[in-house]
Design brief:
It is a multi-pass membrane protein. By secondary structure, this protein is mainly alpha-helical. It is built from 20 helices and no strands. Helix content is 80%, strand content 0%.
């Protein structure tokens, strides 16, 4: 006998674990990078590709995931994402060399790109508005716990077992997600959209292959150029050609997207000032989050000589306060609006990063921990009001499009941020410039956020009028 209530709970369990798994694999590898580098003979720059291969494919293909789900259905699409993530995890655990590990991480990123938006879409479809907030809140809490535990877990596995166990442990977690999802399958199938036909005119959503090719080419060229500039030289011909090709490809992508009836990304939503301001915030949010999760553990191990486990503890301590401040941030945004809390949070975050830069220059572990506590506590003060503002700035029938644009740009912040900081570390051989530059970039966004967020702008329906 069908049990919709029980199936909804299993679906919530599956989607919460999916979110946790996806964010865990962003953060769990950073602490283990020195051990991976030593075992596989990576250069420092090449070792960072273990993280950025995941981020790059995630960024490029997450916009495609929604289109594919509309074409084949959420259920089959979700199962394909699980299969890709499992295959990438198995290949990473068995990787015989650095090339295989980086390729496996890229495959994981493709799987994550399908799974991440599917989790939100399934819960939104299953739970009615009066229960949706609680469901999404639980999912976000689980994701936060996984993200917080990533550095400590990665350090413990690298120190006491092997870095390969980071990927082996994904497999039983994926099996649990699959089991829970299969129990919830009847409800997911009943509430999801019907797969669209792929035929002629008006048959349903189509995949924007030219847009995808330009986005993939542009981001790959920019990321490669930025990451290798520290070792090849900023003025070297290969770096200049890569940066120019990347910029040209992304410019062509933007030109194409505003002219297509069914674009990969509805970039014309960026004409709405509040939405654009929120997107800027999330670009920098992911930029500085990746900077902290990757380069603080590296500094603690390579300069202060801490073990992988000890290097993971300050990151865990930094993220835990956000589980409390996330509730306060939501209430502050409801009472004060989004602009003031987001601006204050961004300013405090930038100052915290400058303090981390100062602390690494002084080799002061207590100051690093204090700065990280401030950094972590204000993360929700940035994210919660900004997401509230940008999603409220577009009409309900454009919410899915808005989510796709924001998520892609957010992940782009992490991809390009890691690439730029890797090149700075390679060029200077010093960690303080990495954190000081990131802090200054965060503070440089304050004026744009204050001036754009919650300001009246063109309606999304007007912005897309030319396509109708």
């Amino acid at each position: 006998m069908s049990d919709p209530v029980g199936q909804a709970r299993w679906a919530l369990a599956a989607m919460s674990l999916v979110l946790g798994l996806v964010v865990l694999d962003e953060t769990v590898v950073g602490v283990a990078l020195p051990r991976i580098q030593a075992e596989l003979g990576f250069t420092p720059t090449a070792a960072h590709w273990v993280v950025n291969a995941y981020l790059l494919t995630f960024t490029c293909f997450v916009a495609l995931a929604g289109r594919v789900a509309d074409l084949v259905g959420r259920g089959p699409s979700f199962l394909a994402g699980l299969a890709l993530f499992a295959g990438g995890s198995l290949a990473a655990a068995l990787a015989a060399d650095g090339t295989m590990l980086i390729a496996a991480r890229a495959l994981q990123g493709c799987g994550a790109a399908i799974l991440f938006p599917a989790g939100f879409a399934v819960l939104t479809a299953i739970f009615p508005p009066d229960r949706r907030g609680a469901a999404l809140g639980l999912q976000t809490t689980v994701g936060g716990l996984f993200m917080a535990s990533g550095p400590l877990l990665g350090g413990a596995l690298a120190e006491h077992l092997s870095w390969r166990w980071i990927f082996w442990l994904n497999l039983p977690l994926l099996a649990a997600i699959l089991a829970a999802f299969l129990v919830a399958w009847p409800l997911v199938a009943a509430t999801g959209p019907k797969p669209a036909g792929g035929g002629g005119q008006g048959a349903g959503p189509r995949i924007d292959w030219p847009g995808l090719a330009l986005l993939l080419a542009g981001l790959t060229a920019l990321t490669l150029g930025l990451m290798e500039s520290g070792s090849w030289g900023w003025g070297s011909l290969p770096v200049l050609l890569l940066l120019a090709a990347g910029a040209a490809s992304l410019a062509a992508f933007l030109w194409l997207e505003v002219r297509r009836r069914q674009p990969l990304l509805h970039v014309d939503l960026l004409r709405i000032p509040t939405f654009a301001g929120g997107v800027i915030v999330f670009f920098m949010f992911q930029f500085d989050k990746i900077t902290v999760f990757i380069f603080v553990p590296l500094y603690l191990q390579q300069v202060l000589g801490l073990s992988p486990v000890d290097a993971g503890l300050p990151i865990l301590a930094a993220v835990l306060p956000s589980l409390v401040t996330s509730l306060l941030a939501g209430r502050a945004a409801d009472r004060l609006g989004s602009r003031l809390p987001a601006t204050i949070g961004l300013a405090a975050n930038g100052v915290a990063l400058l303090l981390v830069g100062l602390a690494t220059a002084l080799d002061s572990l207590p100051l690093i921990v204090a700065a990280l506590l401030l950094w972590g506590a204000v993360l929700p003060v940035i994210a919660v009001p900004s997401r509230r503002a940008l999603m409220s700035a577009v009409p309900p029938d454009h919410q899915g499009q808005a989510s796709g644009v924001n998520l892609t740009v957010q992940m782009m912040g992490g991809t390009l941020g890691l690439a730029l900081c890797t090149s700075i570390l390679a060029a200077t051989g010093s960690f303080p410039p990495v954190f000081l530059l990131t802090g200054l970039l965060v503070l440089a966004c304050l004026g744009a956020v204050w001036g754009m967020m919650e300001r009246p702008g063109r309606r999304a329906s007007d912005a897309t009028e030319r396509r109708q």
